[in-house]
Amino acid sequence: MPDMSSPKSTSKVSIDSAVDGSPFELVNAQGNPDILILCDHASAALPPTYGTLGLPATEFHRHIAYDIGCAEVVRALASHLNCPAILGRYSRLLVDLNRGPDDPTIVMKLSDGSVIPANADVDRFRDGEEFQSRIAHYHEPYHDAVDAQIKSALAQDHVPVIISIHSFTPFWRGQARQWHAGVLWDKDPRLAMPLLGALAGQEGLAVGDNEPYGGFLKGDTLYRHCTKRGLPHALLEIRQDLIDTERGQAEWADRLARVLPDLIAADGVREITHYGSRTDPT
């Protein structure tokens, strides 16, 4: 989703390739199968063959390239909960893992005022070969990894609860955003509503209900892996200035580690129940 940039994060940013070339990072694969944490926009990295997509390197310190602070929160949270986590290893400017292949924004040509030169013709109608290459090499392997982790949990008779963690900028079009975090959801309230209540009940936290974005996008990660399967899930957005330092990342990982175990253990949560989607035809 297009957004305004914030001051430069203290998180480490690289536009180099992942060390092993894999388009995803799998953390703690053998951890507690009751919960799976996802981080679609964990990195600003690009494969070496793509250079900087024609952009100045400074653009990769912005929200347009990745969700600042999220990777560190996710890794720490997976450690606290002893559960698996899957993180995307390449920038959303290469291909957006939180979009379906039919979404016209899966390869962004213009993001928050920045034109991405190398993406100008990359879609199924013009440079279809490059488009399909990005899907095959970077998009599908991530989703295959998510699918495999879910199937592994189900094979062990565990219905996994999935939480996806993103971040948003503190300002949008010059206006300060009032929320510290937002819980995004579609029609399945089992994790989203208790998580919203647990966070909103903490002193000093303003938490949005489907703010600053809506949580119902057909074909996105949670639609693909959770809504269609009937798995409990929620997407948590954290304001990036709260997690752009090691201290902030640790605070949010600790906060979530305190509230999530009780939420996922509640009656009726870890069951397969189909709620459908607000995007379904009426």
In short:
The protein has one domain: Zn-dependent exopeptidases (Aminopeptidase, 3-Layer(aba) Sandwich).
Number of helices: 5
Q: Helix proportion of residues, in percent?
A: 25-40%
Strand order of the biggest β-sheet = 1-3-2-6-11-9-10
What is the β-strand count? Answer: 11
Whole-number count of domains:
1
Which radius of gyration do the C-alpha atoms yield? 18 Å
Which CATH class is shown?
Alpha Beta
**What is the CA-CA span between the terminal residues?**
25 Å
Pairing-aware structural class of the strands and helices?
alpha/beta
- Stated plainly, the CATH topology is called Aminopeptidase
CATH level-4 homologous superfamily: Zn-dependent exopeptidases
The run of helices and strands is: EEHEEEHEEEEHEHEH
Mean pLDDT: 93
Strand content: 15-25%
Globally, the shape reads globular
In the CATH hierarchy, what is the architecture at level 2?
Answer: 3-Layer(aba) Sandwich
